[in-house]
Design goal:
heterodimer; A: alpha+beta; 16 strands; B: mainly alpha
C-alpha cells in the first residue's frame, strides 16, 4: 500500500455547512487530485458526516485552548477529531445506512448530484484518499484487529491497482485512434491477458469459496448488495467489494455506497414492494399494457447508463389497439414488414452474438442460460418471438409481437388452397411452425391435387415431394440443416411469405412485393434418379430449437488461446482476446499475422518464370540479355546491376540506363499504361469482372497513414496506387470497413530479399544509384504481393501471397506493408 | 396502470439496470441482454433479474476474498505496467 503525506489542513475558519456550502465543497472535492490531498472537510463530506458532527470538530478547534492544542496537534499529524470517529465509522454499518437515508431525503443533494457520471470515479478516488490519510489509518488501527488491518491494506492495494489500471486505460483510450496496427494488436493482447487472468482467478476463487462452503462470505456479499440496493446505491461493485473486504465489515462499503446513493438520488423500492407487485401481476394474463416496457426500460436506463439502442416502441397493446401514432402511420404506408424484418434480423444477430461470446460456464449458469437448460436464453428468445415459435408469452415489450400476431393469418388459414384446376397454383402461407410444417401442408395439398394422377404423369417436383417426408425435402432444398455447426439449422421465413406451387412445376418461396420468388424446387433440380442436385433456398437461417451445437459447446469449454477447440471448423472460429474466449467469426475472416506469414509466403511461383527465379547473381543466363530472356521478361546483370525488359510499364525497354541518376527519386510507369483494361487483361489475365471486388487502395494507404517524413515521394506513390489499383474505375472504397483495416496486421518482409517480377504494377525507386522496385501484381487468383526488388543480396526470393484463405483485405495490408518497407529503404 | 404501479415498474427496471451496471462482463454482452429484453416475458425478465442478482452477489463474494484481491492486484499492476510501456512508446 502506498503511503502519502498527511493531508493539508484547512484554514481555521468556521465552516457553515448550509446546503449551498456543502454543494460547493462537494463540487470542489470532485476536482481534487488523487494524491491524498483531501482536506478534512472533504473527508468529512466523503465520510458522510453530519453537519452537527463536523461543526463540533471545527468549533472545538476555535473555542477552547484545549481544542486549539488539539488543532496544533492536528497540524503535527496527530489524530483529528472526526478522523478518530472515521475509523470507527468505517466499521459501522448502521450509521451509514441512517446517514445515507438522511442524505437521500435531501432533494437539493439529489438534484445537485444527479446524473454526474464522473462522480463514481471521484468517489473511488476519495475513498482511496481516505484510506491513505494517516489519521484514518491510525484511528482504524486502534479499533481494528491486526488481521482486519491486513485485509484493509490488501483491499486498498487492490483498489489502487484498479484505479491505476483504469487511469492507464483511460489515457490510452484517448489516443486509440493514433495507435498503429501493431500497437492496437499489442493493446488487445494486454487487455485480453488481463481479462483472461481475471476470469481464471474469479473461477478458481469461486470454486474455493464453494468448496469450503464459505457461506458467510456469500452472505456478506449478499448483505452488501442488498444494503446497497436498499439505499439505492449505485456504487461500483469493485469499490463495494474492496471496501467491504477491508476489516471484514459492511460498514466500509457503506460509506462508499452512501455517496453513490446520494449521487444519483435513486431509491429503488424495497424488494418486498416489488414482490407484491410481481405476484399480483405475474400470472395475470393481459396485465401487460402499453407502456409497461417503456417504463421498465426507462428504469434500466436510469441505473445502467451505458445501455444503448433500447427499443421503446409500443405499437399495439394486448387488445390490439394502436398506441403509437408514428408506427400506425408506418403500417398504413406499408413499411412495417421491412421494419419488422430489420428488427428480427437485429434480434437474431444479438442471439448469435450471445452464443458467439462463449459465455463462461459460471456466467451461463448464473444467467440460467446454461447449455441444455430448457429455460435458456435462446429459449427465451424463441418464446418471445412469435415468428419462430408457438410459445405465447406475455412479453413485457410486446409491441411487435402483438402487431405480428395481427398481421399473421391464423394457422388454420395456412392451408389455403385455391380452387383447384389443372392450371391453378397452390399457395401455403409461411407459418410460425416453420418450413417443415409448411412443406408438409403443401405436400398434403399436392396429394389432393394430383390424386389419381399416374406417377409418370406427375411433374418431377410433385413426384419428389409426394415420395419424401417433409423434413427430408427441407434438408434437400437447403431449408433445414440439423448439422449446421453454428446452430442456425432452420430457414427463417417471414410472415407474408408463402410456399407456392406453380403450374410450371416449380415450388417457390414468394415474398410480398417481390415478383420473382425464390425457386426452391424445379424439375431441373431433380436428377434422373429422383434426387435433388442443387439447393434451392438461399435465404437466412436461424436457430429454431435453441439447442446449442457442438460448436458453441466447444467454444465454451476452450479458454486457452493456444488450444484450438476440437470438433469445429477452425475457419469458423477465432480467438477473441478481449473476452478471452473462442468465438464464431462474424463478418470477415481474420488470420493472425504469424499464421498468415508462415502459411502463405511461398517461394518463387509466378507464371512461366517460376524456374528461373533463383539466385540471379550466380545464374549464367541472367548475364545474357538474349531475345529469349527479354521475351520472358527476365532480368540480366551487368556491372553488378540488374536489368530487365519486356515490362508493360516500359514498352520501350529498360528504364535503367547506364547513367542512373544519383539522387533519390520516384519513377513510376505511365499511369495510362495500367489503366487500359485491354492491356491489363492481356498482360495479367485479369478481366474487369474479376477485379470488381477490389477496394480502393488509397483508402488503405490512408488507414496506414504513411509517415509524412517521406513527403512528396509518398504522395506520388499514393497517387500511383490510386491509379494503378483502380484500372477500371469500378472499385468500391467502402467494400471493407475501416475497422477491418484497423485489425490488419503487418508482415515483416526480409530487407535483403530479392523479388523480381516483370509484369504487374510496379513502383521504382533509385537508392544510391541502384534501382529498387516494388511490384504489387494482380493475378487471376487475386492480388499477389511481391517483395521489393533490391540489388542488394542475392537470395532471389520472390514472395507471393496466393493462399486462397487470404482475404483481399489481408493481401492489401501486406501490400501496404511491403510498400512501407520499400519506401523506408534508404 | 396507475402512478404507483408505474413507479414500481420503473423501480424494477432500475433494479435490473443496477445489476447490469455492476456485473463485470464485457459491455457488449450486457448490450446483447438489453437487446433481447424486449422479447422476454415477464417471467423471463424476473428470472433474468434473479440471475443477475445472484451473479452480482457471487462476483462480490469473489472480490471480497483476500486471495483474489492479492493476486488481482498483481495482475492489474502488471497490466498497468504494460500499458505504461505502450504509452511511453507512443509518446
Amino acid at each position: 500500500m502506498s503511503k502519502t503525506e498527511g493531508p493539508p489542513y484547512p484554514d481555521n475558519k468556521k465552516i457553515d455547512y448550509s446546503i449551498s456550502e456543502r454543494e460547493a465543497e462537494v463540487k470542489r472535492k470532485r476536482n481534487a487530485p488523487i494524491d491524498g490531498s483531501l482536506s478534512m472537510e472533504d473527508a468529512a463530506i466523503a465520510a458522510g458526516f453530519s453537519k452537527e458532527e463536523t461543526k463540533k470538530v471545527v468549533a472545538a478547534q476555535e473555542k477552547t485552548s484545549e481544542q486549539v492544542e488539539q488543532a496544533v496537534e492536528k497540524k503535527k499529524g496527530g489524530l483529528f477529531g472526526f478522523a478518530k470517529n472515521a475509523g470507527k465509522e468505517f466499521l459501522k454499518k448502521a450509521t451509514f445506512i441512517n446517514t445515507a437515508e438522511a442524505w437521500k431525503k435531501n432533494s437539493a443533494n439529489q438534484e445537485m448530484l444527479k446524473g454526474n457520471s464522473s462522480l463514481l470515479t471521484d468517489l473511488l478516488e476519495s475513498r482511496k484518499s481516505m484510506f491513505e490519510m494517516k489519521e484514518v489509518q491510525d484511528s482504524i488501527r486502534k479499533v481494528a484487529k491486526p488481521e482486519e488491518l491486513k485485509q484493509l491494506e490488501n483491499s486498498t492495494s487492490y483498489l489502487e491497482s484498479k484505479l491505476l489500471f483504469r487511469a492507464k486505460l483511460k489515457e490510452i483510450s484517448s489516443i486509440k485512434k493514433d495507435l498503429s496496427p501493431e500497437q492496437r494488436d499489442r493493446l488487445a493482447r494486454i487487455l485480453g491477458g488481463n481479462r483472461t487472468k481475471k476470469e481464471d482467478l474469479k473461477e478458481s476463487t469461486l470454486r474455493s469459496i464453494k468448496k469450503a462452503k464459505n457461506e458467510s462470505r456469500i452472505e456478506i456479499a449478499r448483505q452488501a448488495v442488498t444494503s446497497t440496493l436498499a439505499v439505492g446505491s449505485i456504487a461500483s461493485v469493485g469499490a463495494l467489494a474492496v471496501t467491504l473486504g477491508g476489516a471484514g465489515s459492511a460498514g466500509l462499503s457503506a460509506l462508499m455506497g452512501q455517496k453513490a446513493a446520494v449521487a444519483l438520488g435513486v431509491g429503488i423500492s424495497s424488494r418486498a414492494g416489488f414482490d407484491a407487485w410481481f405476484r399480483k401481476n405475474k400470472f395475470e394474463q393481459g396485465s401487460q399494457k402499453a407502456g409497461v416496457g417503456k417504463v421498465l426500460l426507462g428504469g434500466i436506463h436510469e441505473t445502467y447508463k451505458d445501455a444503448r439502442g433500447l427499443e421503446l416502441v409500443n405499437i399495439r397493446d394486448r387488445e390490439g389497439n394502436i398506441t403509437n401514432e408514428k408506427e400506425w402511420r408506418k403500417i398504413q404506408e406499408g413499411e412495417s414488414q421491412e421494419a419488422f424484418q430489420k428488427k428480427k434480423d437485429k434480434q437474431r444477430k444479438a442471439q448469435m452474438r450471445l452464443v458467439g461470446y462463449g459465455l463462461s460456464g459460471s456466467l451461463a449458469a448464473a444467467f440460467g442460460f446454461g447449455l441444455g437448460e430448457s429455460d435458456g436464453l435462446e429459449e427465451a428468445y424463441k418464446a418471445g418471438n412469435p415468428d419462430f415459435s408457438e410459445s405465447s408469452g406475455n412479453s413485457v415489450l410486446d409491441a411487435s409481437q402483438k402487431f405480428e400476431a395481427k398481421m399473421t393469418p391464423d394457422a388454420s388459414s395456412s392451408s389455403v388452397v385455391e380452387n383447384i384446376s389443372n392450371t391453378s397454383k397452390i399457395s401455403v402461407d409461411a407459418s410460425p411452425q416453420g418450413a417443415i410444417h409448411d412443406l408438409e401442408t403443401l405436400k398434403g395439398q399436392l396429394a389432393e391435387r394430383f390424386k389419381g394422377v399416374p406417377t409418370d404423369k406427375q411433374p418431377d417436383t410433385v413426384r419428389y415431394v409426394l415420395n419424401n417426408p417433409a423434413d427430408k425435402i427441407a434438408q434437400d432444398i437447403g431449408m433445414y440443416d440439423p448439422n449446421d455447426p453454428s446452430g442456425m439449422e432452420s430457414a427463417a421465413t417471414i410472415k407474408g411469405q408463402s410456399f407456392v406451387y406453380s403450374p410450371d412445376g416449380k415450388i417457390s418461396l414468394m415474398t410480398p412485393g417481390v415478383e420473382q420468388g425464390d425457386v426452391l424446387l424445379s424439375d431441373d433440380a431433380i436428377s434422373m434418379d429422383g434426387k435433388i442436385i442443387k439447393d434451392g433456398y438461399g435465404g437466412k437461417m436461424f436457430d429454431y430449437d435453441g439447442e446449442k451445437t457442438s460448436l458453441a459447446q466447444t467454444m465454451l469449454q476452450e479458454r486457452d488461446p493456444s488450444v484450438m477447440p476440437t470438433g469445429v471448423d477452425p475457419s469458423k472460429i477465432e480467438w477473441n482476446p478481449e473476452i478471452g474466449r473462442w468465438e464464431q467469426k462474424l463478418d470477415y475472416p481474420y488470420t493472425s499475422n504469424s499464421e498468415l506469414t508462415q502459411a502463405s509466403v511461398e517461394t518463387p511461383v509466378y507464371g512461366d518464370i517460376q524456374k528461373e527465379v533463383v539466385s540471379t547473381a550466380s545464374t549464367e543466363q541472367y548475364l545474357q540479355p538474349t531475345q529469349e530472356n527479354i521475351e520472358k521478361g527476365l532480368a540480366f546483370e551487368r556491372d553488378g546491376r540488374h536489368y530487365y525488359y519486356n515490362h508493360p510499364g516500359y514498352p520501350n525497354g529498360n528504364p535503367f540506363g547506364e547513367n542512373l541518376p544519383v539522387e533519390e527519386s520516384v519513377q513510376v510507369p505511365p499511369q495510362e499504361a495500367f489503366n487500359q483494361p485491354s492491356q491489363v487483361e492481356a498482360n495479367m489475365g485479369v478481366t474487369p469482372e474479376s477485379t470488381g471486388q477490389m477496394v480502393d487502395v488509397a483508402e488503405i494507404m490512408k488507414a496506414y497513414e504513411f509517415p509524412e517524413s517521406i513527403g512528396k515521394t509518398i504522395q506520388d506513390f499514393k497517387g500511383q496506387f490510386r491509379g494503378s489499383f483502380n484500372p477500371f474505375g469500378n472499385l468500391t472504397p467502402d467494400a471493407f470497413p475501416q475497422d477491418v483495416f484497423g485489425q490488419a496486421k503487418p508482415v515483416e518482409l526480409s530487407p535483403d530479399s530479392l523479388g523480381r517480377v516483370v509484369r504487374g504494377y510496379e513502383f521504382t525507386k533509385i537508392v544510391n544509384g541502384e534501382p529498387r522496385i516494388l511490384l504489387l501484381s494482380p493475378s487471376p487468383e487475386g492480388f499477389s504481393v511481391l517483395n521489393p526488388l533490391s540489388t542488394e543480396g542475392n537470395a532471389g526470393v520472390l514472395a507471393r501471397f496466393n493462399d486462397a484463405s487470404l482475404s483481399m483485405v489481408e493481401k492489401f495490408s501486406l501490400a501496404a506493408d511491403a510498400t512501407r518497407h520499400f519506401l523506408s529503404v534508404k | 396502470m396507475d402512478e404507483a404501479q408505474t413507479q414500481e415498474i420503473h423501480d424494477y427496471g432500475k433494479r435490473i439496470g443496477f445489476f447490469l451496471d455492476q456485473l463485470d462482463v464485457p459491455a457488449s454482452l450486457k448490450q446483447v441482454l438489453i437487446e433481447l429484453l424486449p422479447t422476454f416475458t415477464l417471467e423471463q425478465i424476473e428470472e433474468l433479474r434473479i440471475r443477475l442478482e445472484e451473479q452480482v452477489i457471487e462476483q462480490t463474494a469473489i472480490e471480497l476474498t483476500p486471495e483474489f484481491q492479492q493476486k488481482m492486484t498483481e495482475v492489474n499492476n502488471e497490466t498497468s505496467g504494460e500499458l505504461d510501456a505502450l504509452l511511453t512508446e507512443i509518446k
